[in-house]
Design brief:
The chain contains 15 helices and 13 strands. The protein has 356 residues and is an alpha/beta fold. The radius of gyration is 21 Å and the shape is elongated.
Amino acid sequence: MKILFIGAGTSNHTLRWVNSLVERGHDVLLLTRKDQPINNQYSNKVKVVLLHHCGGLGYYFNVRQVRKIFKQFKPDIVNAHYLTGYGTTARLAKLKPLVLSAWGSDVFDFPNKSRINKWLLKKNVFYADAIASTSFTMANELKKLFPNYKKSITVTPFGIDIEKFTPYPKIDNNSIIIGIVKYLKPIYNIDLLIDAFTIIHKKFNNTKLEIYGDGPLKNELIEQCKRNGILDCVNFHGLIPNDSVPKVINCMDIFVNCSLQESFGVAVLEAMACEKPVVVTTTPGYCEIVEDGIDGIILKDRNPQTMATAFEKLIVNPDLRLEYGKNGRKKVCEKYVWNDNVLTMIDLYKRISKKG
C-alpha cells in the first residue's frame, strides 16, 4: 500500500508509525515542515520531503506543494497526524482518501480557545474519511464537541513494544527511587512532585527522586529543590535517548506522572510494561489506563500530602509494589501492544482506501 503520511518529523510518535509501516512492506512518503526534520532513527526505507514553509502559517503556505506531491505520488491513503495543523493542510490540499489522527491538544485545547478554532476543527473532522484517536477518552470528547458526527472513531493507542519495555532486576536496592520521564513544562506539574517528595523524604531518608527530561522550567525546579532542602537527593538528568527509557524506568521503584491534562499516557504504560507501580493524577488519559488499587494509585486531588501518602503506601509495602507491577504488565500485554495497534491502523487504511 502507498501511504502519504503528514506529520511532525521531530515527533517520536511519527517515527514509530512510519517505521512500523515500512517494516510491514508499505511504501511510505513522509511530509513534514523543514523546521521539524527527521533524525537518524528513521528507517532508510521511509521517503521524506521537507515542506518549504515553517511555523503556524506554514500549514497554509505549504498547501500547493503538498497538493503537487500528492498528485505525483498517487497514494492509496493519506494519514495526517493532528486534526488541526497538518489536518488543515490536508483538507485545503483536497487530499483523499484521508485519515486524520487526533493526538490530544487538538481536541481538548484548540477548539476551546475561540469559535473560529472550533469551526476550523469541525471543517477538518467532517472533511476526513475517517478519524483515529489515541484514546477512547479523546474519541468521546470529540463526539461531545460535534454530536452530529456520525462516523465511528477508531482508537489506535501509542502502544508499547513489550519486548523492549520489559522488567529486569533493579541495580540499586539500598534506595527507594521515585522517578518521572517528562518534559519540564508547566502542564506536567512537576513542582507538585517535588513538594510531595520533600514531605516523604523527611520520613524516609533513603528515598531519591530521578527526573528525566528537559524544558523551560528546569532552573525554576532546581531552585525549588534548593528551597526545599532536597537538592542532594534529586537528580535532573536532562533529555535521554528513546532507547534508554526502559533502562531508566527499571532503575525506579515508583513511577509518577502528574500532568494537569493528558489525553492518553504512553509513559505510564511504558512503566507498567516494566512492572513498575504508578502514581498518577486524575486526568482523562490516566484514568483510562490505570485502575486505582489494582495497578497503581490515582490521586484524588493535587495536594502534595496526598501524593506523599501514596508514596508511603508503596514504600512500606514492597509486596504491593510487586502486585501492582505484575497487574500493570498484564494489562499492557492484553490491551496495549504496539504491533496490535499498528495492525488496527492498517486495517482502517484498507477499509477506506481503494485497497480495501
